[in-house]
Amino acid sequence: MNKKIIFKYSGIIGISLMYTACIGPKAAQRQENKAVPSSYNNVKDSVNTAKNKWKDFFTDPYLTALIDTALNRNQELNIMLQEINIAKNEVRARKGAYLPFLGIGAGGGVDKVGRYTSQGANDANTEIMPGKNFPDPLGNFMFGANISWEVDIWQKLRNSKRSAAYKYLASIEGKNFMVTNLIAEIANSYYELVALDNQLDNLKKNIEIQQNALEIVKLEKSSAKVTELAVRKFEAEVLKNQSRQFYIAQQITVTENRINFLVGRFPQPVSRNSANFLNMIPDTVHSGIPSQLLANRPDIKQAEQQLTASRLDIKAARAEFFPSFMIRAAGGYQAFDPKYLIQTPQSLLFSLAGDLVAPLINRNAIKANYYSANARQVQAAFNYERKILNAYIEVTNQLSNISNLKKSYDLKSLQVQALTQSIDISTVLFKSARADYMEVLMTQRDALESKFELIETKKQQMNARVNIYQALGGGWK
What we know:
single chain, alpha+beta, Outer membrane efflux proteins (OEP), 2 domains, four-stranded antiparallel beta sheet, 6 strands, 11% strand
């Protein structure tokens, strides 16, 4: 009766401890917010430029050739491709974790025990067959196979594998995001290079005008209409702009080499079409609706995949609190002499066992892993929301930028036109002594700076076109 009571209460205690072990702690999680405004600045247009392939969006053959080369040779992009392979291999490793493990092996050895020991005395008095005792020393030879399998009752291993799969998908989206950034960086650098060519060409033309003005001033001095001061002022202005040519030439070299680095090659001249840069008219960009960012922006899709993976990591971490069920089996042959090794059933051996083990005391490591998984899920949710917010703001900023740059460019064009005409007018007035040399000098200087600003504004217009395409999620398809 006492034994029954002991077994009864022992069973109750064991079940209670097992139940306690299976209860995991609770931790805060966060549900992400996917809400976005219904439109950009109350303009609803379902047409989205991001759906255009980059070869259709960029029509300059020199630029498309650079982008095509970069997509094949850029080192950073190729490094990212290897990260994708690493993530893919992680999926394979996690998949193998919940499948049975099979191993085979063979071994041999010799064992000598003391004669005056219980084992030695027993072996000496035991016959393996009539007239033959155990050999001394005793050999041991065996070969066989063993299997171990953790039965994934709580989906811990499968959730780990699914989490790795989502991280693999996130790495692909990370590569796509890098592609959009790479294309945008090359395009912006290309337009910067073309703009510098135009600034240098404009500077050379202005130097020619100033040299002609210098000759006029020299003639005016010879006729005592102006002093040596006027000659020196014009000469200094010519020298200043001649020096400025080398500054622009250095900027061209740096920009060319930036492009060469992006396309993965050593420094060399970059082929380009700099003619008619100021006559380029940026195409109309259709922004679509904000909800399309969720499907078009690779960084948002990457954050979404990472968020899904973090939720699966929580499930896998929580399953660590539950009992794990392991099945082990082995079979093979074992004998003290190789000639008896494959005799059946005398040398045959096998085993089969099952373990059900649950963590009971000192679960700090498991708890820490679980809390960390929850914290990473909260991080992933905030990161997902941040990506959406950032994408919407980027598009809004670029749409405003395109509109304002167009207005600015139109006004600067009129300014350049007016100042260009002023050069001729001031020169005529100077010859007729109705304007002094400083008015001519300042007019030439203002005209040069206004043309530089016009070229810079055109470059910003082209960059804004590239940036809105990038912000909408275009370029990776």
